[in-house]
Amino acid sequence: MEYLNIPPAHIQREQLRQLMRADNQGNRISWDSHNEKYKYKSKLDIHNRAQLKGHFQTQKSAMGLQIKDLKDGWSTVADDITKMEEKNEVLVRRAKDGVPKTVWANDPSLMLPMDPVFAKTWHSVQVPDNPEELRKVLLANKMTAATQAKVIVAAPSTKKKKGPRRGGKQTNTHMIGILKDFSGMRK
User: Fold this and answer.
1) I want to staple 128 with a disulfide (CB 3.0 to 4.6 A). Which of 78, 83, 121, 133 is the partner?
2) Contact 106, 91 (CB under 8 A)
3) Is 65 within the bounds of a domain?
4) CA 155, CA 157: separation in Å to the nearest integer?
5) What is the extent of the structural domain holding 21?
6) Structure pTM?
7) Are residues 96 and 62 in the same domain?
8) Residues 69-98: pLDDT tens digits?
């Protein structure tokens, strides 16, 4: 802590020392007692490609990692992730501007080539340019088009009769006899 601009006997120096050496979850500073040095603790302990692969291999779920969390301790993460994506080592979700946002593990052994016969058949199918033509062809073959709008018949609206009005909640029910108006019973 000699690099700080605080006098050695000052109380703030001791407070900082205790704060930086505290072992709580929110503390972003780790202290190495062997060589008396402090180090920044990143959100994830991943700083290169090998550590990222190791993390994905030990991970129990297929959850992805946010690039912003990786950037906290790995400054060249975007370039390295792009290189790993080219080698089919990771799957990347990008934002609209092409910036990587999330990364997942990828198994390159699952990248199988497509059967050329299937690809040829797939590309030989002609889809009409106008969706209306496709709908007419489907209807001519007595099939239902997925884009066909369902006609909803509105039920005739009958006016509902209003029910009789109820009086509000009566309070002081224990004093009904006392509060009753007996003025109409006079002679």
Assistant:
1) 133
2) yes
3) yes
4) 6
5) 11-40
6) 0.53
7) yes
8) 999 888 899 999 999 999 989 999 999 998
